[in-house]
Structures are given as C-alpha cells and as structure tokens.
C-alpha cells in the first residue's frame, strides 16, 4: 500500500468525521418543514458553523478524490470508513463522555476490520470492464436503491427515516467515489478535454448535492448516533462493489482470503455500529423531537 494513499485517505477521513459532527450540531435545530427540501440547505448556509463543517467535508472529499486517483477504490474506501473515529473524538470533546468499553471495542473492530480486509484481499488494480451494460447496470441498481430508500423515508416519516436517508446517502457517496475514480483516469489520459466531454464529472456533482441533502435531512431529524453509522457503513460497501464490479479492482478470491475479507467487512460494520451508537455522539434537540414533528407536511 502506498504511503501517499494511506495519508490522503486518513486525512480525508479526519476532515469528513469532523465535518459531519459540525454539520449535525447545526442541522438538528433546522425547522421540520425543511425535511428533504432544498430550503434546508439554504437555511443551513446562513450558519457559519455549518459552513465550516461543509468546508471540512468538501476538503475530505477532495483528499479522498486524490487518494482514489492514486489507489484502488477497494483500498481507499475501508480507510475512509475510519471517519467515525474522528467524529467520535470531536463528539467526545464536546460531550465529555469517556471512551469506555464500547468505544474501545468499536475502535478495535473498525481498525482490525480495515486491516484484515486489506491484508486478506490485497486490493490491486486491473483492467476496467469496458462493457457499458455492466457498468451502468451496477450504477443504476445502487442509485435506484438509494432513491427508493429516500422515497420510503419521505413517505413513512418514522423514527427509521434518518437511517434510511443516511443509507441512501452512503450508497450515493459510494457511487460518487467510483465515478470520481473514473474521472481521474479520464483526466490522466486526456486532460480536461477528455474529462469534461464525458458525463462522469457532472454525475459526481449531482450525486454530491443529492447526497448532501439526504445527509442533512437525516442530521436534522435524528441524533448523529442514528444516522452516521448507516452512512459510514453503506459508502465503502457501495464503493467496493463498484470497484470490483466494473473498475477492474482485484481481490484475492481463494476460500481462505474470501473468508477473511468477509470477516473484515463484518468487523468494519460492527465497529461502525458500536462507535456510532456511543453515548459521546451528540444528540441534542433532534433526539427529543417528537415523531409527530417528522410527520408534518
């Protein structure tokens, strides 16, 4: 593994984790009527703290894009999942909660899962799939699932809506990471002309804005401990699927390696859940907001 890719991915994770916490600190006080409306983003833009969190998130995405340009998505995505460690660190500072057994167990599971998956799978580059049907089928399925989850959350307006929205956003961000990787390849091959003659950079922008709206709506309606685990778990899984599915990433596929890779991914998800549900994660007014407020409009 390249030291540059490691440093870029971990730096991106730090920016993302800190940015998510700052965004949720503000979004939790947004009016319920802004749920899944672009008015929510317009209202949040007036708050400097939210703009600071968004700047950190954009910086994290930029660093992640550079990491994706220099390394396989199946390698970078598990490292980006460590953003939850940095989110917990900032949340712990804000709340004064100790790490405790749950925090240490989640840390060990997440760090151990990332290490296990990378060591067992040994992600490496290969030849990207040229079949456009397979390419767009994988992307279409994941975007379709994300939109279905968002639609379900909007219709149901239950306490599970933030989880559904965060999962949908995570899927979109995973697809965005895959298209960012494709855009980086096109740029290296033909510069800006090759980059902007394809639809990938525009899809990256559209996915980013849509994902941002879904994430902020999830932050608005529930504490971070409900939304961030789903977001953090869905993104690497979607990214790895794209990487293996059509970007040409290769993993070891013998029986032993597959077993360890599955165990690593399970540990990553388990660590994400433990850390995301940690008492240090901020709750604020969103946790006390009655379900009937989510059912307005």
UniProtKB/TrEMBL annotation:
Coiled coil: none annotated. It comes from the Bacteria. It comes from Streptomyces bauhiniae. The chain crosses the membrane at residues 47-68, 75-91, 103-121, 133-153, 159-175, 195-215, 227-247, 259-281. Keywords: Membrane, Transmembrane, Transmembrane helix. This is DMT family transporter.
């Amino acid at each position: 593994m390249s030291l540059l890719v490691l440093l870029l991915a971990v730096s991106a994770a730090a920016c993302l984790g800190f940015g998510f916490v700052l965004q949720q600190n503000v979004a939790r006080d947004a009016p319920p009527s802004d749920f899944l409306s672009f008015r929510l983003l317009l209202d949040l833009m007036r708050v400097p703290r939210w703009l600071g969190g968004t700047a950190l998130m954009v910086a994290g995405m930029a660093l992640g894009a550079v990491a994706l340009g220099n390394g396989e998505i199946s390698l970078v995505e598990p490292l980006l999942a460590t953003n939850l460690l940095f989110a917990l660190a900032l949340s712990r500072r804000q709340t004064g909660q100790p790490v405790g057994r749950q925090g240490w167990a989640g840390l060990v599971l997440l760090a151990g899962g990332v290490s296990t998956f990378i060591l067992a799978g040994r992600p490496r580059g290969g030849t990207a799939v040229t079949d456009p049907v397979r390419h767009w089928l994988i992307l279409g399925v994941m975007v379709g699932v994300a939109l279905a989850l968002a639609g379900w959350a909007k219709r149901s307006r239950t306490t599970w809506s933030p989880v559904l929205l965060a999962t949908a956003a995570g899927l979109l961000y995973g697809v965005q990471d895959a298209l960012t990787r494709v855009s980086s390849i096109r740029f290296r091959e033909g510069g800006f002309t090759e980059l902007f003659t394809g639809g990938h950079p525009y899809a990256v922008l559209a996915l980013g804005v849509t994902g941002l709206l879904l994430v902020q709506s999830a932050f608005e309606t529930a504490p971070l401990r409900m939304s961030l685990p789903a977001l953090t778990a869905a993104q690497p899984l979607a990214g790895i699927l794209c990487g293996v599915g059509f970007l040409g990433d290769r993993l070891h596929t013998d029986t032993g390696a597959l077993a360890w890779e599955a165990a690593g991914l399970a540990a990553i998800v388990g660590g994400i859940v433990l850390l995301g549900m940690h008492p240090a994660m901020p709750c604020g007014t969103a946790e006390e907001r009655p379900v009937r407020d989510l059912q307005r409009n």
